[in-house]
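User: I'm curious whether this sequence folds into something compact or stays loose and floppy. Could you predict its structure so I can see for myself?
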Amino acid sequence: MANSTVGAGVLSLPFAFQATGLLGGLILCVVVGITEALTLYVLSKFAERYKARTYVELVRRALGRKLAVLLSSVLVVAMFGACVAYLIILSDNLSSLAAAANLPRWIADRHRITAFLGIGVLLPMCFPRQLTALARMNQVAVLGFLVGAGLVAYRGFTIAFSRPDPLEGVELLVVNYDSLFAIPIIVFGFNCHSTVVSIFHELEPTPTVVVPVLPSSPSAFRRFRYIPRPASRKLVGMLSVIMASTSLVMAVYVTVGISGYMAFPDNVSSNILMSFDRDDIMVQIARLAVTLIVMGSYPLTHHPARAGFEHLVKPATPAGAVEPLDSDVDALPAGVSRLTSVAFTLAFVLSSTAVAEVVTDLGVVLHLLGGLCISFIIFFLPGLLLINAAILKYSRTVLEELEGQEDGQGVADEEQTLPSSLTQPLLQRLQSARDKGIKKSGIIYAPRLSWQFGTALLVLSVLVAGVTLLTVILG
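Assistant: Here's the prediction. I'll summarize afterward.
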């Protein structure tokens, strides 16, 4: 989970802190981190309820095929952009390392390095269909994340405290137009929602390790109202994974963001490693560590993109047909050939490599991805899932009460049994919503906490997308 979260975002945190100030960046990281952790739990909860193995499969079963097709398209675009960002980082890091090692210019050439990485290294890593096949690489990547972040933070604080006043030029809180650019970057930094359903599917049913502050039994959560209440031991384990990984990533992000901003308060690059001296040995080691992170992140990011593409090309399930819920996760979807899957992987890796040969500005890539595609994945769809669940429960509760009233009153007129606020058109929509939710009824107000939280997530998604479009248009 931690490796699914970390990646290109960590290198842009000092840039975001410069735009919002020391305290502003800290507050933004904490708020976004907690919000995204909650939406991770929401996705895991509904993945268990609908027995889904991928994000696309979850949306299709809960919200309908049209939204699943839209999600598939967004996933392909968003994950493609993220992989371009990863290749930019890899190329920058390895070309710098090669130059520092005084290797021949043709070896240190950025374009040759990009091509070799895409075709010779990353392409073979993208063919496995199970995330567990990358487990060893993921462990190395998380270790690389900690080492790299630690070295960057140490060097950043060293530079800052070498000045008479370490806080010279550093502002605590910045609220201006430039601050808007920080929001999508931090939103992107905590994103791992595209793979969380697959991770939950592969998680063991009974967790062996649980965060100490959490009870191991689901029944212990039932007395609480305003915190997650997992219904199974597996979901308790997933909650532990989410809490541990989010806390770790947040702590490292804040440390890197603060140290990088303090080191270069006036002008920090969108890739903090590019701000340091190229000949600094410690920074070069950090580059190598970050390279390991990104090498693990690329195939993890490709995984949901491939699943999204396969859903797009998968033949529609005939009306009334029952889709199998427990098929092997390693198997191809029905109607999708292995040749089609392999061809997509080839096209995905080769085209992302080609784009990374041309595009070199990491900040622009992360800004667009975080504000448009990623906000749809991490805020909008979890919000709809919560609203859908609230509508389902509310409609069933109301209709069961009405049926009970009719049974007790015998031949009483139906209109007399309806609550004053429940009109006949609304009753018909509730009857449609009882089994299919918003797929049949559309959005109906349901006086439940999950409906309110889901609506807040929808509003947040629209605001983040609006901020991104505004900054892109105005420049």
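Summary: The chain has two domains: 2-378, 389-474. The longest helix spans residues 362-409.
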